[in-house]
Amino acid sequence: MTTNHRHTPGRRAVLGGALGGALTGLSACAFTGDGSAASGGAGPSGPADHLVVWFPGTNQTEIDLVTGEIVPAFEERTGATVDVTYLDWGDMSTKLNAAFAAGTAPDVFGHGPAAVADFAVNDRLEDLGPYLELLEPADLEDMDAALPGGRVDGTQYLVPLSIQGSLIAYRAGDFREAGLDPDDPPRTWEDLLEVARRLTVRDGAGTITRSGLLLMSDAIGRQQSFAALLASAGGRQVDGTSPATAAFDSPAGATALDYLVTLFAGDPAVAADLGQNYSDLPPEQQPLVTGRASMTMSTAVRAQSMHDAHPELDLRVMQPLAFSGGEPGVLGGAGPGLMINKDSAAKELAWEFISHLLQPEVSGEYTRGIGAIPVRASSVDDPYVQGSPVMTAFVQAADAWVPNPNVPGWVQARDTLSGFLEQALNERLTPEEALAQAAPAVDEVLAKAARAGGA
Amino acid sequence: MAAVTAPAAGTASAAAEGRRDRRSRRNRTRWIGVAFVAPAALYLLVFQLVPVLYGVALSLTEYSPLSRGAPRPVGLANYAALLDDPEFGQALLVTGRYVLMVLPLTVAIALGLALLANRPFRGVGAFRSALYVPHIVSLTVVSMVWLWMYSPDGLFNEWLTGLGLPEQRWLLQEDSALAAASAMRVWKALGSNMVLLLAGLQGIPRELYEAASMDGAGAWNRFRYVTLPGLRPMLTYVVAMDIVYLAQGFAEIYVLTQGGPLGSTTTVNYLIYTEAFQYNSFGSASAMAFVLFALIVSFSGLAVRGISGRKS
Amino acid sequence: MSTTSTPARTAPRAAAAGRGPGRRGAGVTNVVLLATATVLVLIPFLWVVSLAFTPTEDAFGAPQLIPEDPTLGNFGTAWDANLGQALWNTSVVTVVAVLTNVVFATAAGYAFAMLPFRGSTALFYGLVSTAAIPVSVTLIPLFLMAKQFPLAGGNDLLGHGGSGLLDSLGGVVLPYVIGPMNIFLARQYFSAANSDLAEAARIDGAGEVRIFTRIYLPLAKPLLAVVSIFAFTGVWDDFLWPLVVTSSAETQTVQLALARFLTSGNVQYGPLMAGAVLITLPVLAVFLFNQRAFVSGLTDGSVKG
Lengths: 455, 312, 305
Fold this sequence. Notes:
The structure holds 3 protein chains of 3 kinds. Chain A folds into 2 domains: 50-160 and 336-371, 3-Layer(aba) Sandwich (D-Maltodextrin-Binding Protein, domain 2), CATH 3.40.190; 166-332 and 407-454, Periplasmic binding protein-like II (D-Maltodextrin-Binding Protein, domain 2, 3-Layer(aba) Sandwich). Helix content of chain A is 47%, strand content 13%. Chain A has helices at residues 2-32, 60-78, 89-102, 116-121, 129-132, 137-142, 172-177, 189-199, 221-232, 251-265, 287-290, 300-309, 347-358, 360-370, 383-386, 389-396, 410-425, 431-454, and strands at residues 50-56, 81-87, 108-111, 151-152, 155-156, 159-160, 163-171, 201-202, 208-210, 238-239, 245-246, 295-299, 315-317, 330-334, 337-340, 401-402. In chain A, the strands form 5 sheets. Chain A has a 5-stranded mixed beta sheet with strand order 2-1-3-15-6. In chain A, helix 2 links the parallel strand 1 (50-56) and strand 2. Chain B is mainly alpha-helical. Chain B has a single domain (86-308), classed as Orthogonal Bundle (MetI-like fold). Chain B is built from 12 helices and 2 strands. In chain B, helix 4 crosses helix 7 and helix 11 packs antiparallel against helix 12. Chain B is globular and about 75 Å long. Chain C has a domain at 82-264 and 278-294: MetI-like (MetI-like fold). Helices cover 59% and strands 0% of the residues of chain C. Chain C has 12 helices and no strands. The longest helix of chain C has 42 residues, at 73-114. Chains B and C meet through helix 1, helix 3, helix 4, helix 5 and helix 7 of B and helix 1, helix 2, helix 3, helix 4 and helix 6 of C.
């Protein structure tokens, strides 16, 4: 018994000590983990003849391309070794968060443009401006549609590997059936709505069985639809950079949101299935394929795959639309791309890797492999683009791409805005109310993110 | 090792020796208990509890893993902010409703299946394995199938149309989305619950059934007075486990609804994930996590007490 | 004196008992009900199998279970996505996790039920409650601990200098070594056991380890079966931790291998489903093997008080 009494506190002390020690060790590492102390195989350390890359993409074609051609060619030319990990950009944040906290982030990593500003404001990214200056001016101009999407406050941090954007795709057969000319599609959103009304089909009970026009209305999609309409209406989502402030609570914003709401809740409505994420549905379930819709806003990859799988549908793609009297605008621009870790010990090498991917033939092969829009305007002459009316239409639209803003806190700001858009779409709020309430909420998010970076 | 001496009854000294004996045995038992527990406990203390304590510390700060600076202490501000965050309040309600929708149904069905699969017959193993399949198929993969089944042109609407009923917008309506997600979770949780209850059923002594039968008890009474009480410890575990896991429901929501429509399926853990990995706000994510933790622990504690009765 | 040898198996023997409902064969109704339930439960999985044989372009086309144009190509594509290596890696991690859980979690649960010591209840609840913390919060601290693991991956005794357990199978297994809920489960199982057996054995001079391994463990086969199945599936289905802790193909787990077909906005349904079927098979085999514990005659019922 006595032995017991003597030992019990001792045991506790030992346990407590171990716990405390572990905690302190952890905290010491995490709280000062600024990456400069990065070490080990997974970190950006070591001699400058080794490169760690986290590549934004898991498509087999791009894995084959990068592992089979780009890396060997690069290794042979530079004598360096490269470790590449392939990740879907949706999984990138989780992995990068842990890696930055522990100081093991890679030399080069990829992500979507929406995340760039948060890395930049935390001083994690290398300014790529000086590196880009090494390229030919003609080269830069060739990529002019893509590059702005990778800039934060005028500084280039991300080099996009592809362009992403959405245009309206339509079934030519439905046009003819409704007495419309598929070779002369609408040029304005107003005309588009008229056409959509003629294309909409209802059953006896008045339920829409075929939507005339579907714009994205799911959690992320509805913000994209809104942003596309807003751009065409001459509005902007935010002003300034750090902190940015909401600019969508404007007459242009009201026009845009009003239009979106009218599609689903107008009299008569032209769109059903509010809230469904149709863009991520399997090809055979796409509304244009099943016949649940005659026109949908569609990404290049989707439009291309539907076009290839169902030539009988005679799918076409419209050029960007404008509101009457305005300029056409459409949400798009930089897709996922590559960034360089500011703490990398092999920045020159890292840039060489990126610039290798930017070479016209490599870049062309890459975008062809993943079915995306090429970053270079000159690729309009590429057989890949030439051979596909769908891809041609997307490349031609390059001038009208308007990227999402790259400001700190954008991901959260976007989701906040999206929440209010949803309330308007469900008629809980009028479009004006929704935008008026969203603006201060978004301002708060943006201000907080800018503060966090400044601290 | 102290050998057990047989009690030599008769003399006072022997009795005293016996007492000392028992006492030393109890001491030995205590230490041996510690030894049994030590490997697992030490491991968990280091690799489970330390991260948790780290999280507690972070919940009192503002911290982004991307930041180069140290976490900024903010006291209880993160918790205070949750108090008047309507989104968090709604997520708590959604989480509670989700648990209540899934738990009773999955336990009841699993119990039924376990009773059916408890009888030995040729091929019963195949049935048990088949019923366990939902638990082992990759959740992401199988969610895609459910997503399609619920889609406007999906299997469920196909069936409804076949029966001459109107189509439903399962995941797209505020009033049905959570129920639809729950249905998938019931399905997914069936296998593990059934296996546990099956193990519990196997532990019930057959002679109890014998005795009950001899006393003339019918099937229902045997279930009521033999099966249920005998199953109590396992049932307790099943309910506690379901509460712990269901209240942390996230992956199925992520795939099926992304928390919508109108936040009707945004669970607390969905918020936590978004806050931590989309918005990089680890401080407030941790605060949410510990509020959730407190609720899970109290509710599962209540459930454990409620079901196990005298045992706690 | 110290060698009392009378076996203390005082428990009633079930062998003598007649045939209770637990032993009786199943009636036709029973089998039909079970079969119906099984078919219903299997429907989503049957679609997974069906899609595994369907070319990706046709996925989810006509709602018919037998694909019009079946192909085996998806399995080849899935296998080429490093699935062989991933299966091996996951198996190694799984074997470790199953062993550690079966041995240590079960022993701990047994002690919490049968050999309580001062503070054991508090310790028990403390350990088990850690299961109620969302992974999102513990992911990064655990990652830091993996990186600072002493004497691994080039680290010194204090955990500095190297990459620790990052990108190694040792790192992957870290969160699965002991499942707190498995301790809970074992405690529940043993708390229902008859402690007279232990008491009698002690009087007979048996040591505690012997009492545990020779008397109670043999009676706990269903428990061991469940603990191993759960430890197995826990490793098999996890995505977030392996995603964070591994980076090379050499340490990839099965779920990471599948992620190759889950590109946002461009999912490769055929290979994805084929891969899912392939990685489900080993788990099913283990389950089939394990489930025999549920019918083994060894659970003679004496474990209950």
